[in-house]
């Protein structure tokens, strides 16, 4: 956490639900009066000349931006330990002071909310970076539909997956949306109104999410949540999202590929860190030392992986193949939901009266967000391969690949297989643009 900012002169309507709310902002979202470092040596002193649209919208609505939060460098990580400023430490009860993972990459935002330092926080979620920390820290983490919140002024990691997400204590972090009101209205008409009946949601349990790595505590929380929903009169159906097992490999080809291209601009010429070795280079075209010193090891690994996936010899087998898998993951979701995918509808149908048009049977999908409750930081650090951390994202990347909205809601199932009563994040997913139903379901879970 850095400075506390004065309330913006631009703040207007005192009737806004955000007026006077204290908001923390992940440090890859540009602010003009605070640095935007992306937790990288590369951008240690960087102050953006312009402000992200989401920050501007919040300020206009009267929010107070309390500071910037620590994260995994450029959003790459699952435990917020890959930061030039040191690791984020998750919240622990006084009786168990062992440091735990806050989740990543928006770990700082999740901790700020969990510790009551702010009313809500902005994060970014490319493959789970809002939902995983929310799950570990026991707060609500919302990844909107892809494209729902503006990314102008948000430092790109993987453009086709990046979303701005919101972390809050409860289900209503007051979406500071920048989507045009007209598109919002059309989406609402086409989706939510069409096919769901609040009294009884059709809830799908994707069998492929029941992976062997799920800890007993998480499996129990999932079962208990489904039972509770059933007893409240909702319908529970097992469903199949058959390409789920391939999502993780697809994501870890596509995200680094896009990252390798996005991060090419950090060469120390226009802005950011520049190594002395490069400055003294006689032929001045070298930037290898700058990039070596400016980026942490994990970011360099992603750049190498991505550049390889895009190279002529590997492109067909990796990048193109991963894109095909992504399309299949998307169709899995379309095949599951009653609601049609608005993005895939023909232009004239988008304006037609709402109707059920999807191929599937459910309004909502319910699954855990993470394999376990927050692990000890010492266990995370003891992992032999950095790839071990990638596995943590197995339950969050499918929604990212499909672009559908997802929210992680904490449940506390004490006793039984979760003797310590640690929070466990339950993930609710709905069709693209169907945030209305998403929040209905999230509210029931709380
Ligand atoms: N852990 C994932 C990664 O490292 C997701 C990160 C994110 O959503 N920004 O890529």
Describe the protein's architecture and organization.
It contains 16 helices and ten strands. The chain has a ten-stranded mixed β-sheet with strand order 2-1-3-5-4-9-10-8-6-7, sandwiched between helices. α7 (244-262) packs across α10 and α7 crosses α11. It is α/β, with parallel strands linked by helices. β6, α6 (216-231) and β7 form a beta-alpha-beta unit. Helices cover 33% and strands 12% of the residues. It has one domain: Amidase signature (AS) enzymes (Alpha-Beta Complex), CATH 3.90.1300.10. The chain has helices at residues 53-60, 107-114, 131-137, 181-190, 192-195, 216-231, 244-262, 276-279, 288-294, 297-309, 316-336, 347-351, 377-381, 387-390, 397-402, 435-445, and strands spanning 22-26, 64-69, 120-125, 140-143, 163-168, 202-206, 235-239, 364-368, 406-411, 424-429. The structure holds glutamine. Glutamine (GLN) is lined by residues 75-78, 105, 124-129, 157, 255, 393. It is an enzyme of class 6 (ligase). Its main location: mitochondrion. Subunit of the heterotrimeric GatCAB amidotransferase (AdT) complex, composed of A, B and C subunits. It is found in: Mitochondrion.
């Amino acid at each position: 956490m850095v400075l506390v900012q004065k309330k913006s002169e631009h703040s207007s309507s005192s009737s806004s639900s955000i007026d006077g709310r204290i908001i923390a902002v992940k440090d890859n979202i540009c602010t003009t009066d605070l640095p935007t470092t992306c937790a990288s040596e590369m951008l240690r002193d960087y102050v953006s000349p312009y402000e992200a649209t989401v920050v501007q919208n919040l300020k206009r609505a009267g929010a107070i931006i309390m500071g910037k939060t620590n994260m995994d460098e450029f959003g790459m990580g699952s435990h917020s330990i890959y930061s030039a400023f040191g690791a984020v430490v998750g919240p622990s009860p006084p009786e168990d002071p062992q440091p735990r993972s806050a989740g990543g990459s928006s770990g700082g935002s999740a901790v700020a909310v969990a510790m009551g330092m702010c009313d809500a926080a902005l994060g970014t979620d490319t493959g789970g970076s809002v939902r995983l920390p929310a799950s570990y820290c026991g707060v609500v983490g919302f990844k909107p539909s892809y494209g729902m919140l503006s990314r102008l002024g948000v430092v790109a990691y993987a453009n086709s997956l990046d979303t701005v997400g919101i972390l809050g204590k409860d289900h209503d972090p007051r979406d500071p949306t920048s989507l045009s009101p007209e598109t919002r209205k059309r989406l609402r008409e086409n989706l939510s109104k069409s096919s769901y009946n609040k009294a009884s949601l059709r809830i799908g349990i994707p069998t492929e999410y029941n992976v062997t790595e799920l800890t007993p505590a998480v499996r129990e929380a999932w079962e208990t949540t489904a039972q509770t929903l059933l007893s409240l009169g909702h319908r529970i159906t097992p469903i199949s999202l058959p390409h789920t097992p391939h999502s993780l490999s697809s994501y870890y080809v596509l995200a680094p590929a896009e990252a390798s291209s996005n991060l090419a601009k950090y060469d120390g010429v226009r802005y950011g860190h520049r190594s002395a070795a490069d400055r003294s280079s006689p032929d001045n075209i070298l930037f290898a030392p700058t990039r070596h010193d400016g980026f942490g090891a994990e970011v360099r690994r992603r750049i190498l992986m991505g550049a390889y996936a895009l190279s002529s010899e590997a492109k067909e087998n990796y990048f193109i193949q991963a894109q095909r898998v992504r399309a299949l993951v998307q169709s899995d979701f379309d095949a599951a939901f009653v609601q049609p995918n608005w993005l895939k509808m023909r232009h004239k149908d988008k304006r037609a009266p709402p109707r059920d048009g999807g191929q599937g049977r459910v309004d909502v999908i319910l699954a855990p967000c993470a394999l376990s409750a927050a692990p000890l930081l010492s266990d995370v650090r003891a992992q032999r391969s950095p790839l071990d951390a990638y596995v943590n994202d197995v339950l969050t990347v499918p929604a990212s690949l499909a672009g559908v909205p997802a929210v992680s809601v904490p449940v506390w199932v004490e006793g039984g297989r979760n003797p310590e009563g640690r929070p466990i994040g339950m993930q609710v997913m709905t069709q693209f643009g169907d945030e209305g139903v998403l929040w209905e379901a999230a509210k029931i879970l709380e």
